[in-house]
């Protein structure tokens, strides 16, 4: 009986456990350093990203990191204005997804939800039809904001108390000013300050899938494999 148990244990190790451990030793470090997905739990990026979205994060967009750390092995680019970046909050270490607004050395200011960078106002236009879902438009004002020639939607909630006017704030060297596209319902650099470069994980590039949490996690097929503006 003891011999049978030993044979079974050896077979289990050889045929199942060892291959799984080897695969994990290869896959997890690659996932940590190269690319992964990120679930969107809140509405701070509405209408660009919705609660229930699953986004693809390119962790090689700016640098190569030591697996399971934020230590950089090499850097070949910096976040650009308008990128949707994934980073660890400098306040509590939570993983967040926000848009890059201000670059190192720039001055960021807001006057009644209108952003200014280095004293110049950003361009705004009416949001084209079909960009946002009906829930995003409810009790909200939507517009298309242009950052460095890259348009994206933003959402304003006039009835909600919010920090609509702030600054001017000069972004420190090696840091970035981040904001959610849902401007009046986002905890971002207005509250926890600028984000150091070392805390940025990567760039969110594509919507992999989306589940409508308000309707029993029904798939939103129209959002499948959409690029993130």
Task: Please tell me how large the radius of gyration is.
Answer: 21 Å
List SSEs in N-to-C order: HEEEEEEEEEEHEEEEHEEEE
Q: Give the CA-CA distance, first to last residue.
A: 63 Å
Q: Provide the low-confidence segments as ranges.
A: 19-33
- Kindly report the oligomeric state of this protein: single chain
How much helix, percentage-wise, in residues? 10-25%
What would the principal axes of the Cα set say about the shape? globular
Mean pLDDT: 85
Largest sheet: 9 strands, antiparallel
Which secondary-structure class do the elements indicate? alpha+beta
Tally the helices: 3
Instruction: Work out the number of β strands.
Output: 18
Q: In what range is the share of β-strand residues?
A: 35-45%
């Amino acid at each position: 009986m003891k011999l049978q148990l030993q044979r079974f244990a050896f077979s289990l190790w050889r045929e199942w456990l060892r291959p799984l451990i080897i695969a994990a030793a290869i896959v997890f470090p690659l996932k940590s350093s190269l690319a992964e997905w990120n679930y969107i739990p809140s509405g701070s990026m509405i209408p660009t990203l919705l609660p229930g979205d699953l986004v693809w994060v390119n962790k090689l967009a700016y640098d190569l990191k030591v697996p399971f750390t934020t230590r950089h092995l090499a850097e070949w680019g910096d976040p650009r204005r308008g990128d949707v970046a994934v980073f660890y909050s400098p306040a509590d270490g939570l993983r967040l997804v926000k848009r890059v607004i201000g670059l190192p050395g720039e001055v960021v200011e807001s006057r009644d939800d209108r952003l200014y960078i280095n004293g110049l106002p950003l361009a705004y236009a009416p949001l084209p039809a079909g960009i946002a879902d009906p829930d995003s438009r409810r009790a909200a004002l939507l517009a298309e904001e242009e950052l460095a020639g890259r348009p994206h939607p933003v959402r304003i909630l006039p009835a909600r108390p919010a920090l609509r006017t702030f600054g001017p704030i000069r972004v420190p060297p090696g840091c970035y000013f981040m904001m959610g596209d849902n401007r009046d319902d986002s905890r971002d650099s207005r509250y926890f300050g600028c984000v150091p470069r070392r805390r940025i994980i990567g760039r969110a590039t594509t919507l992999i899938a989306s589940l409508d949490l308000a309707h029993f996690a029904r798939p939103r097929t129209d959002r499948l494999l959409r690029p993130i503006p």
